[in-house]
Write a structure and sequence with these properties.
By secondary structure, the chain is α/β, with parallel strands linked by helices. It has helices spanning 2-14, 35-38, 94-105, 110-126, 142-148, 152-164, 187-194, 222-233; strands spanning 61-62, 65-66, 85-91, 134-137, 173-175, 198-200, 210-218, 238-246. The protein has a four-stranded parallel β-sheet with strand order 3-8-7-4. A two-stranded antiparallel sheet has the order 1-2. The protein has a two-stranded antiparallel sheet with strand order 5-6. The structure holds zinc ion (2 copies).
């Protein structure tokens, strides 16, 4: 394969792989991120919030211990929470945000592999052995998906599905309302923006099923909660939400 290798060498000479965060040229041993940026990725510190998965260091302290009953990122206590639990792999710091942005808006598809791998490691370490029946990515509205060309949550879920050998189901959960971008809204408005924005196509396929619901980032939990609501109302037994990053 001399020719293929030569093409590869010429390509990497003219288009060297660059760090997805700082844009430095990558060494041969580095993938997606340079070693310096990789150091900036922070695993969620445990124990995490038993509802939303926020790390212990984000909690107010009570008698020297993290007080999860006042978790700042749990879905509002005024409203029901439909997912059984949310987990996240890493903190949504500047480095994680840059990776997410590059996947979402700059078509850096290799980022989804990287994100899924970190989530996979997190699963090995922290998930109780739940036997999931399927993985479902949080869907985009068809109009948004047409505009972007792809759904970043689906790319992550696809990769994770390969790693953990659980089937991906992308046709069951639908986004039925075209909503404003959550990033433009206050936490309160985020709730109303996505409430009842999802529906299930074939509820009988979800009856009594254990679902792993995937998204890129957990911010207020509104989107995941609304998607989980649709899944639970359709008959799903368990919905565990799982994101790459957590605010
Ligand atoms: Zn870098
Ligand atoms: Zn919480």
């Amino acid at each position: 394969m001399i020719i293929a290798e030569t093409v590869e060498a010429v390509l990497s000479f003219f288009f060297p792989a660059r760090c997805a965060v700082c844009n430095e040229r990558l060494k041969e041993s580095e993938e997606l991120l340079c070693d310096v940026c990789r150091q900036e990725i922070r695993w969620i510190d445990l124990p995490d919030c038993p509802v939303c998965g926020a790390g212990a260091s984000k909690m107010p302290r009570s008698r020297g211990k993290p007080d999860f009953s006042h978790c700042p990122t749990c879905p509002s206590r005024k409203r029901p929470v439909y997912f059984d639990r949310c987990f996240s792999a890493v903190y949504y710091n500047d480095t994680a945000a840059e990776i997410v942005k590059n996947l979402k808006f700059n078509r850096l598809f290799s980022a989804s592999t990287f994100m899924a791998r970190l989530m996979f490691i997190r699963m090995q370490e922290n998930f109780s052995p739940i036997k999931f029946d399927c993985i479902i990515p949080v869907p985009l509205h068809p109009r948004r998906q047409r505009l972007r060309g792809y759904n970043q949550a689906e790319l992550i879920a696809e990769e994770l599905s390969r790693l953990i050998h659980i089937p991906l189901a992308t046709e069951l959960l639908l986004r039925t309302r075209f909503t404003k971008k959550q990033t433009e809204l206050t936490p309160e408005d985020r709730y109303f923006n996505v409430n009842d924005a999802f529906a299930v196509r074939e509820p009988e396929l979800l009856n009594d099923k254990k679902v792993l619901l995937i998204d890129d980032v957990y911010t207020t939990g509104s989107t995941l909660n609304s998607a989980a609501k649709a899944l639970k109302l359709a008959g799903a037994k368990t919905v565990i939400a799982f994101t790459f990053a957590h605010s």
